[in-house]
Design goal:
Distance between the termini: 31 Å
CATH architecture of the largest domain: 3-Layer(aba) Sandwich
Structural class: alpha/beta
Largest sheet: 7 strands, mixed
Length: 338
């Protein structure tokens, strides 16, 4: 995919509005950090690596507009910017890693130098994610055999990473190796990232894809029509438990029942060794209207209660391997501080 999900344009951040895909490709130029925070909250930018990259650029953007006579004044305002991004979404580890890197990068002899350093660090975070997702995709492709049909859930391609992709990156790399593969993509309710985004990206990459509803996955597994499952992740605990889009846990259990390998692909920036298990990962609860409505159209009785956890936890016992840029990791998972 040649379309850039996120691009730095000389003190502006250009994003592809993912909420409008696949029917409209609309780019938005953001010049205020608060607009970047809003874009993350509303999922115009989404996917753990892409959220981290956008936050880094947003922090740099906000820093450029700080009017301060000295370092103390600058850091008073800079702290407010960091806090705004830290409260934008709670689950993706890449967001908090990017915030930490930007905080540590805010060094220099004067305010002007600090501002320049922050832009450089944001660009480096972006480049690091591009390199990591490219490498992990190449490594992960070795797990894909010619003729495989792969099930994937949610969206973990260039849109979600502003790089090569994670789960979809592995699939793309396998195709580039000359393997004849096909994909079954879940629609991924409630916001239909699979139907809107994954199907769109795979079509652009000329990879055969069949779209199914989330509840059809067990049928296709039991029929022997799926060779492996590959998903991305938003955060991974030290023991290998993962947080990913709601419904991932269900797929992992079904895959185990049907003896199908279940792979997780993510850069190491998604791993959070400070958390001992998935029980400690914060799970974002989003608006009930995302469940009771589809793209603004009501589908449920007015006033009905609805729950909307955006992610679930898949215990490490269901995971065959975690694919990172540093290698393919299998049980026992034990991630130490990096």
């Amino acid at each position: 995919m040649t379309t850039k999900a996120i691009e730095w344009l000389d003190n502006e951040l250009r994003i592809l509005d993912q909420s409008k895909l696949p029917h409209q490709q609309i780019f938005i130029d953001l010049s205020d950090y608060q607009d970047v925070v809003s874009a993350i909250k509303t999922m115009q930018i989404r996917g753990a690596p892409a959220i981290g990259i956008a936050a880094a650029y947003g922090i740099a953007l906000g820093a450029q507009k700080i009017e301060a006579e000295n370092r103390t004044q600058f850091f008073d305002e800079f702290g407010k910017i960091l806090e705004a991004f830290a409260t934008s979404r709670p689950t993706a580890a890449n967001l908090f890693r990017a915030i930490d890197r930007m905080k540590k990068a805010a060094t220099g002899n004067n305010v002007s130098e600090i501002k320049r350093t922050l832009i450089d660090e944001a660009k480096q975070i972006h480049q690091d994610e591009i390199e990591a997702t490219t490498k992990l995709s190449q490594l992960g492709a070795e797990l894909i055999k010619d003729g495989f049909t792969i099930l994937t859930h949610c969206n973990a391609g260039p849109l979600a990473t502003a790089g090569y992709g994670t789960a979809l990156g592995v699939i793309k790399a396998a195709k580039e190796q000359g393997k004849k593969i096909s994909v079954i993509a879940t629609e991924t309710r409630p916001l239909l990232q699979g139907a809107r985004l994954t199907a769109w990206e795979l079509k652009q990459a000329d990879i055969p894809v069949t779209l199914i509803t989330d509840s059809m996955a067990g049928y296709f597994m039991s029929q022997g029509k799926i060779n492996c499952v590959i998903v991305g992740a938003d955060r991974i605990a030290a023991n290998g438990d993962i947080a990913n889009k709601i419904g991932t846990y269900t797929l992992a259990v079904l895959a185990k029942e049907n003896s199908i390998p279940f792979y997780v692909a993510c850069p190491t920036s998604t791993i959070d060794p400070s958390l001992s298990s998935g029980a400690e990962i914060p799970i974002e609860e989003r608006s009930p209207e995302e469940v009771t409505h589809i793209q603004g159209i009501p589908i449920a009785p007015e006033g009905i209660n609805a729950a909307n956890p955006a992610f679930d936890i898949t215990p490490h016992k269901y995971i065959t391997a975690i694919i990172t840029e540093k290698g393919i990791i299998r049980e026992p998972f034990a991630f130490a501080s990096q």
